[in-house]
Amino acid sequence: IHPFPHANVYTSWGYPADFSSVFTTDLSGFTVGNDVEFRDGALVRALETPAVYIKSDAQLRPVLSAEVFETLGYSYDDITWLPQSFLDKYNSGGMVDSTTTHPNGTVVKYAGDSTLYLLEGGHKRQFATSEVASVNGYAAIPVITIPSSETYSDGTKIVVKESNLTVPGGV
């Protein structure tokens, strides 16, 4: 069993925030493994410091400034605030300092177009339909609108539910 250490970790994977149908079971025969981490694309901040991080490629990448954060189209409302001790469990990544490219894990669409893409491995992977985005847990994930000047090479189109997108790593 891999616990979700915070409700926002759970919802970052596209799972519903509604716990109205909860079941119970005996877990005594299970071994507790590592905590599930935030999904790539999540925004986090420590309560004790002003730095905002983007989870990308299994690392927390600090954003250089509020100007970079805002220019990239992120929303302060999407940041999860946590104790520093929680963030210390993550590997640190390189600074997000570009205002012309987004980190892997970001869901984007071009201005004037409803097609959704997941940035992965430096490529944009198109969701075949909004239903495919939904079954992969991206229905409630914030979408960043990007200008046509921000280009990425095409990756493999996402046409079905993919376990690498829906099952947290290490689980």
Descriptive labels:
single chain; 171 residues; alpha/beta; 5-stranded mixed β-sheet; 5 helices
Kindly describe this structure.
The protein has 171 residues and is an alpha/beta fold. It has helices spanning 7-12, 66-71, 84-87, 130-135, 163-166, and strands at residues 43-46, 52-56, 59-62, 79-82, 91-92, 107-110, 117-120, 123-126, 143-146, 153-154. Helix content is 15%, strand content 22%. A hairpin with a 2-residue loop joins strand 2 and strand 3 (59-62). The mean pLDDT is 91.
- Quote the beta fraction: 15-25%
Fraction of residues in H or I helices: 10-25%
Element-level helix/strand string: HEEEHEHEEEEHEEH
- C-alpha geometry: globular
Which structural class matches the secondary elements?
Answer: alpha/beta
Brief characterization of the structure:
The chain is of the alpha/beta class and 171 residues long.
